[in-house]
Amino acid sequence: MARSAILNVMVQAAMKAGRSLARDFGEVQNLQVSLKGPGDYVSQADKRSEEIVFSELKRARPDYSFLMEETGAVEGSDGQHRWLVDPLDGTTNFLHGIPMFAVSIALERQGQIVAGVIFNPAMDELYTAERGGGAFLNDRRLRVAGRTKLVDAVIGTGVPHLGRGDHGNYLLQLRNVMGEVSGVRRLGAAALDLAYVAAGRFDGFWEDGLHPWDTGAGIVLIREAGGFVTDLDGGQNVIESKALVAGNEAIQRALLKTLKKPV
User: Fold this and answer.
1) Element (H, E) at 224
2) In whole angstroms, what is the distance from residue 34 CA to residue 128 CA?
3) How far apart are CA 243 and CA 215, in angstroms?
4) Quick check: 65 and 80 in contact, CB under 8 A?
5) Contact 129/226 with Cβ under 8 angstroms?
6) Which residues make beta-bridge pairs with 81?
7) Residue 225 sits in which domain range?
8) Is the dihedral of CA 231, 152, 118, 169 positive or negative?
9) Nearest 5 degrees, angle CA 252-CA 137-CA 251?
């Protein structure tokens, strides 16, 4: 596949950061003897990855703004473009030696996501998408799954945990969904959940409590793979919403309706 210059920059940044994470991931099993503890180690891995991504993107496009999970907002002189960066999505997986984590980079232009890259170094899976150019996994073209009924569908989700999210509301949503579908899965990394929808591995996905750096790259991947993404009210301003529902046209619509069923 032919990539634009800007997508090549994003791929290089994600893969360089991913190689750093892969080296750190190889040491995870030794962390239990660390006096500082594994949490501190993971935070350092996060920061190293983010520094690499920031450096690579800043060198290529010095005027663009950033919104990053660790550092937050960094304003650039170009008011039209913003990078959305999650240097380590799936931190808990990483900490526990589970190979489901990723570097996620998206490019926002005038409020619209125009390119995205998600790289899982542990599985050597590189997802890329550009607006109008399609979505790819390791250069293989992606399409969302073709199933049209929830009864046949496997749906991904994010489960709120200690100190995060509205547990009661989520349990109501889960009760509605689990009675309608073939299976429910939780990967623990929203960027990969969305990439799996684009790849047709998941038929749909929903989660609340997300941030732009979690979802930016996944949104463009799904749309370029022929899928649909909205907020929980069916609105299109997904980047600013913390909630997201995705799938092909039929599944996304049915999942949205199921989530909104009255108690």
Assistant:
1) helix 212-224
2) 36
3) 10
4) no
5) no
6) 109
7) 150-259
8) positive
9) 10
Residue the block writes with tokens 């909630």? 243
Name the residue with tokens 């092909």. 248
CA-wise closest residue to 95 among 196, 184, 24: 24
Number of domains in the chain: 2
Of the candidates 187, 217, 225, the one whose C-alpha atom is nearest the C-alpha of residue 205 is 187
Can you give the pTM of this predicted structure? 0.93
Q: Answer yes or no: do 113 and 157 share one domain.
A: no
In the block, tokens 């599944």 appear at: 251
Each residue's pLDDT tens digit, 1-45: 678 999 999 999 999 999 999 999 988 766 544 444 555 557 788
Neighbour tally for 218: CB within 10 Å? 33
Residue 44 and residue 88 in one domain: yes
Closest-CA residue to 212 (of 236, 190, 240): 240
Question: Is the distance from CB of 133 to CB of 225 less than 8 angstroms?
Answer: no
Say how far apart CA 58 and CA 40 lie, in whole Å.
27
